[in-house]
Design goal:
The first copy, chain A, contains 10 helices and no strands. Chain A is an all-alpha fold. Chain A binds a DNA duplex (16 and 16 nucleotides) through helix 3.
Chain lengths: ~200, ~200
DNA sequence: CCTACCGATCGGTAGG
DNA sequence: CCTACCGATCGGTAGG
């Protein structure tokens, strides 16, 4: 039990270092020093440096999928489901801030077969958002020119939250999601009627 | 003159490797092999590995500033200027695809004083966009709740282009900019009147 | 969780 | 642009 906690502590500290220094530039000795132990001792708890990165990436990928599933499993229009999916995505990032950043920026350092698996998961997640937008357009709810571009614009700006979100800041995750929905659904031009 | 070309070739090859493997994970020996020379020979052309990263980052930062200046130096509404700024940003990224990616993802590996300088430039660039949005709102052209969030959403999605843009793909840089303008100005909800 | 240590590799320099 | 090489550091293992 104490070993389990120590393992979690190692992963948490490593995640923080991976975020600030990057995976490749973070040495096991630096990690050990942050934990108050010797580098060799870490291997009593983990198999390799990469194993930590693997856990972080797959845990986050799984969280994003679960969040999306929650969003689209409830009845409603495509607009409702998109809003819910945005809320879920914001929630996953803001409640796993450091891990989300590491997942986004360090996944390329995974080795096979994990690299291929995580790319596949990212592709699938993007496809889920794309299908949601496509369905909404077919139903006459949405308008846009290119569904691939629109999906990527949305996801890039959502993932960007990890780079600037401050848990001690003014904006709550809910408020952030509300702002996103407003921008993407209605734009920022002051219209004459609907706004 | 041949030395100048060789230097540019080194920087170009390094940029490509930094993009795919990351700065820290790219060794001078790997770079040398890609160039068909010995690692030690590279130092006849450059001072250090980091010097290459410095050049890439500051060149791109400068390009983004110049682009923005071009956009706002012509008369027009805030909407016109925002559209022009988006066109310029898309242009800088798509014409410097690999360098833009390296700038975005590897700048944290710069050492002082360069690190502080590049952070300052990023902060200033974001402030320019923010002021443009702020002015547009004050003039009654724009609507949004939080100018900081809105600016970051816009810039994150613009920078995300570097991750998916394909020079051989269907969408031209101009078309990409047009799509961005449509999404951010009018949103993706099918309105009754203005759309 | 430690000491002691492994082979490999790192960025970079000397000298030509 | 090369050979030869430097000290430092890397991820990880053996054995306790």
């Amino acid at each position: 039990m104490s070993l389990v906690n120590r393992k979690e502590q190692i992963e948490q500290t490593a995640t923080r270092l991976f975020k600030t220094q990057g995976f490749a530039a973070t040495s096991m000795r630096t990690l050990a020093q942050s934990l108050g132990m010797e580098a060799a001792s870490i291997y009593a708890h983990i198999r390799s440096k990469e194993e930590i990165l693997q856990k972080v990436c797959f845990r986050l990928a799984n969280d994003f999928f679960t969040g999306f599933q929650n969003a689209v499993s409830q009845p409603g229009t495509s607009t409702d489901q998109l809003q819910a999916a945005i809320v879920e995505h914001v929630r996953v990032i803001t409640t796993n801030l450091e891990a989300a950043t590491v997942f986004q920026t360090e996944w390329r350092h995974l080795s096979e077969p994990y690299l291929g698996q995580i790319i596949k998961l990212q592709t699938e997640y993007e496809a889920k958002f794309r299908d949601l937008l496509k369905t909404g357009k077919a139903k006459g709810e949405f308008k846009f020119n290119d569904v691939h571009l629109t999906t990527r614009v949305l996801l890039a700006s959502l993932n960007g939250i990890a780079q600037w979100y401050n848990p001690d800041g003014i904006l709550t995750p809910t408020e952030i999601a509300t702002n996103f929905n407003s921008i993407f659904l209605h734009g920022i031009v002051k219209g004459k009627i609907s706004n």
